[in-house]
Write a structure and sequence with these properties.
The complex is a heterodimer of chains A (about 475) and B (about 325).
Chain A: H1 11-24, E1 29-30, H2 33-36, E2 53-55, H3 60-72, E3 77-80, E4 96-99, E5 106-110, E6 115-118, H4 124-131, E7 136-137, H5 150-156, H6 163-166, E8 173-179, E9 185-189, H7 198-202, E10 211-218, E11 220-221, E12 225-233, H8 236-248, E13 255-260, H9 261-268, E14 282-290, H10 295-308, E15 313-316, H11 320-331, H12 333-336, E16 343-346, H13 356-370, E17 375-378, E18 387-391, H14 396-415, H15 434-437, H16 440-453, H17 476-480
Parallel strand pairs in A: 2-4, 3-4
Antiparallel strand pairs in A: 1-2, 5-6, 6-10, 7-11, 8-9, 8-10, 12-14, 12-15, 13-14, 13-17, 16-18, 17-18
Chain B: E1 2-8, E2 11-18, H1 23-32, E3 40-43, E4 60-63, E5 70-74, E6 79-83, H2 88-96, E7 100-101, H3 114-120, H4 127-130, H5 133-136, E8 137-144, E9 149-153, H6 165-169, E10 177-185, E11 187-188, E12 192-200, H7 203-214, E13 221-225, E14 239-247, H8 249-260, E15 265-268, H9 271-279, H10 295-302
Parallel strand pairs in B: 2-4, 3-4
Antiparallel strand pairs in B: 1-2, 5-6, 6-10, 7-11, 8-9, 8-10, 12-14, 12-15, 13-14
Classes of the chains: A alpha+beta (about 475), B alpha+beta (about 325).
Amino acid sequence: MLPGPLALSSPAMTSLEEALRAIVGARHCLTRPGELLVYESDGLPGYHQRPSLAVFPGTRDELLAVMRVLAAHDAPFVARGAGTGLSGGALADGIALVGLQRLRRIIAIDPEARTASVEPGVVNAILTKAVAAYGLHYAPDPSSQTACTLGGNVAENAGGPHCLKYGVTNNHVVRATVALPDGSVLELDRGDEGGYDLLGAFVGSEGCFGVVVELTVRLTPNPDQVITLLADFPSVVSAADATSAIIAAGILPAALELMDQATIRAVEASIYAAGYPVDAAAVLLVEVDGAAAGLGDDAREIERLCLASGARGVRSATDAAERARLWQGRKKAFGAMGRIAPHLVVQDAVVPRTQLAALLTDIAAIGEQHGVRVCNVFHAGDGNLHPNIPYDASDADESARVHAAMSAIMRRCIEAGGTITGEHGVGLDKLPYMEQLFDAATLDAMCRLRSVFDPERRANPGKVVPVHSCKEWYSASNARAGSSS
Amino acid sequence: MVQRVERTRGVLVVTGAHRPADAPALAALLREAPARGATFRIVGNGEWLGAGHPVAATSERIELGAFAGIEQFRPDDLTITVGAATSLDALDRATAEHGLWCPLLPWGSNRGTVGATLATASDGPSSLFLGRPRDLVLGLEAVDGTGAHLRAGGRVVKNVAGFDLTRLLTGSWGTLGVITRAHLRLRARPQVDRTLALRTTSGAEEAELHGWMRGPFAPIAAVALSSPASLELPVAVGTTHLVRIGGNSAFVEASSAALASITPVESHGAGIWDVMRERLPQPDRALHWRDSVLGERLRDRFDPHRLLNPGILGVR
């Protein structure tokens, strides 16, 4: 049974609030509606939930004390980093919000071991900047990296364009200290020396297992050389075909991104204009990196494959500034949609790469059928689609058509053998699709896994797995006493 | 099932190997086990029977031979689905035909199964460079100790849907569930695949080699051999290293030249890696298991009656 939200002015609330203020000070414990407004949404404009309070510990000790107080009050809570998430995962519905962005210390950098230990509020791009002097960077690079935090990256198992070659967050976290909802503190690792991979289970658990207090991540040496190509295509299908051809040729680019015309035009009309051809039906942004020896051969092969798939032209970034500009356009594309319409829905389905051309054709047809504009900007190399639909949420008819289109697109992706989320997480937004993707036994197993970390379901309740999918389980002692299922 | 019934000190004891034909049969076997006090030893091809702490002697064998075979192979997607009892050999042959591999390449014999490799999370000489088992598995199907049939993860290369049962089961030594099927990530085999042996005889050379391995010429496999004679390599002063360089020909030439500038190198066929993996001792992580505070809770949730490989980790 889920604990209910604590009412704003009940005695229980005041006691919790007092206890939290005693730890962090009144300044860092917000309770007035006006102050809490900014925490009502994350990166998706369509969801609004107001927390009962928001507490911001400033040190590790304060965070642990906050967790103990929440446990003592049986209080459910939601942990939040920068609030850039795209699945409504960091929203608190009348319960406590624990903001981690004050915990932004980089605790230690070990250039020899190529690791860094950080607090969860450290911003992704700031870690990379901090280790640049050692010729290192932190590889997972979600598009929100100039704002998002490592703690949030862990919660979602964040990816980004360069995860095609370098892997996702789960491939880069080595150790984590986590605070469980019962107030206890635990060290998690991958079990490399003998043990369950509890860290692997924790990464991507969307704040439902506990709160990261500190994490140790792998750092990646900067590549010897980078070649960034922009290929211009007369159709989305030919760009998708080129993607499949590059992967099938055995080349592993560092990144392989696709943007369609609607996206290109939004970007080129914005301050992030990157010099993309506005008359192209689609572009591929392809990057290869590594030792200089042989890199040119890979780049030339990619160029040949693009042209063979029908590209009108392929050009190469001539210097670091141009490379940065091409990437900025890609990474800010989501923000550039704001020019088209006030609201946006975005999906994150992953499909087999060989299905890309077919899916993109179907997505276009679904868009037309529902009279909505679908913009595609996504990680083609992984098959990780991001169909975006800018629209005006105050137009009830358009909203209905947009949501119908998104459901149809998701259904099609699942039918094609894909998954509902490659990097943004399930959160609230994709809860309705979990039963299309997983059967009852598997969803129940996810509940059981969660119950190991958070038996009372106080950490980010109501997210990821539909609550009704969690059967009651017998406690170990009941089971061993012989009651059979 | 091959059964043997014995009367031991007046008590009838049934022992033998179960060979469930499919996941429902396996699930049924596990569900009816607590009522008769049975426990089980999970067996693929039997390559891992010597590892870990002793499993309870009265445990009945579950042999997973029916769960072998390449089930879905999409070379252009770089993914493959295999029954858990598929041997590493069979996986290798099927993928090699298309110039691909799943670089699990664990210590141990290629007769071992994919399921055992994942259940033990065995690494090998290429793991640091091409990925450990946890990095190469996209999804698993398993039957847990309650008889629940789980379908974790998926067949696509990026997936964060739901809580990560795939990572939970990988490296769990069968104590949380019996892996029946695996979806694996594939890579292209390198265009040029060159193996070189070299010997370092000074700290300076060791340091230079270390620098080469950590730099842009990083290999795809590397090992320092404590007993070169076991691979019919000459025994001499210093440490013998084997490295495997993979990439296009310009890369491999440049990488080899950089290595040769540290110390003389000698070419070997790629087959030496399979020989090495089989001959050199493999780490036994179950024997040195460090159980988390949460370990017992996990087993309580997924195998409350402790049916699966009881005792193998040396914990309750």
